[in-house]
Amino acid sequence: MGISKIRQRLGYGAADMASNLIWPMICTYLTVYYTDALLFDALAVSVITLASKIIDAITDVLMGIVVDKTEFKSGKCRPYFAIGAIPLAIFAVLTFCLPSMVSNNKVLQIVLAFITFNLVSTCYTIVNTPLSAILPSLSADEKERNILVTFRMVMAAAGSFCVTFFALPIINRFGGEKDLYSYAWTIGIFSIVAVALLFFAFGNTREVVKPIKEDKIRLKDGIKAINGQYILFVITMFIYLLGFAVKQAGVFYYYKYYIGNIGALKPADIISIQAIVTSLGMVAGQLTIPFFCKIMGKKKSSILMNFIALAGNIVFLFCGADLLWLCIGTALVWFPLGYLMGMRFALLADVVEYCELKSGIRAAGILSSLDSFLAKLAFGFNVTIIMVLMQMGGYDANMIEQTPTEKFFIQLGFVGVPIICIILTLILFMFFKFDKQLPQMKAERAAAAENK
């Protein structure tokens, strides 16, 4: 039995909204929890996040294989929204509280931090690899896919907004940035809502597009489906995501230590204002996906958005503690990010279909898992990059005012790294070819089907 398009769009969006009630909290505040509450040094934080990527490499690929090999009555992908919902919520809370329970033993704290971070990351993989893989199965119509991606990204932005706007006030309500359990209470609230959204997603999506071949896909078959354009795509997305991930990891430190107070506004107030601008910018960018795709196409519009993001980051180099210009720079950075985050999934669906038409193998799970792994790798390196830069600058969590050298390195992470990544992304986009070849390949397949 089918469901209405609007229910499917809302269901698809709800899954990513759930993820964005949990993962941005981890990306933005887990480092702060480690450095300011648990008082881990930069080396310990870097080891935890980077070493975890080795496990991610395994779990992401394994999850891709599982998605391609299994078949439930309710589909290949959507059942995992329900399967992963409660474990994701549980381990999200444990990540922010279990190390606090052994505050008298630093080594055990670090071990528990490593274990819980990997468990929540694995649960995130269980939900998000199918979420990325499901799009080609929801609709064969390219316009409908763009609309689905728009719903997904707008609702994801709403989830991120809730974290960015409400997290710090809730953390302060439960004891503040240095409290051992304030972060756990905060993510616990978000996790309850996330579970409800994931079950809503499970009940309101349907996989209606069948692959060319119904055979179960083996890992070596999935590898055969990989080609040069797919490799170019995932490298480009990794570099692009790395720049924004580093910026996201540096938000708290940038506004607290580099900007400081602006008049009567404290850093927490400024972060809340920036959260509103960020969310409005991202939603506006996501709502323009169908428009820019129609008039410019996916590749050209993505290049345009990278130029806008570049301009936004340059604003941060010169604006100082001027609230108006901080808001303008934020809008110019996050409007294209909203667009490009949505376009990433639309392009992923296209490149998966391109690989299928080239190889005759639909390995959506495996291909999506590799993309998911590189995305999470970006959010592992971001912490390492920020921590290394702050260590070079002499960051001390016990100091209210950081040194000018430390402030320079904070800005280098918040602005300099994103600029470098955007420039590299622009260069790599020039080599995309699948956007031109795919329509012709689909037309040839349709013509061949008619002649049978």
Short description:
The protein is built from 17 helices and no strands.
Secondary structure: elements and pairs:
Layout: H1 5-37, H2 42-69, H3 79-95, H4 106-133, H5 135-138, H6 142-173, H7 182-203, H8 219-224, H9 228-249, H10 251-259, H11 267-287, H12 289-296, H13 298-318, H14 323-359, H15 364-393, H16 404-429, H17 434-451
Helix pairs in contact: 1-3, 1-4, 1-6, 1-7, 2-4, 2-15, 3-4, 3-7, 4-15, 6-7, 6-11, 6-14, 9-14, 9-15, 9-16, 10-11, 10-16, 11-14, 12-13, 13-14, 13-16, 14-15, 14-17, 15-16
Give your account of this protein's structure.
The chain is built from 17 helices and no strands. It is an all-alpha fold and 452 residues long.
Distinctive features:
452 residues; mainly alpha; 0% strand; globular
Overall residue-averaged pLDDT value: 85
Fraction of residues in H or I helices: over 70%
Structural class computed from helices and strand pairing: mainly alpha
Taken as a percent bin, the fraction of beta residues is under 5%
Span between termini: 29 Å
Low-confidence runs of at least 5 consecutive residues:
none
Count every helix, treating DSSP H or I runs of 4 or more residues as helices: 17
By DSSP, the count of extended strands is 0
How are helices and strands ordered from N to C?
A: HHHHHHHHHHHHHHHHH
The biggest sheet amounts to: none
- Rounded to the nearest angstrom, the radius of gyration is 21 Å
What spatial form do the alpha-carbon principal axes imply?
Answer: globular
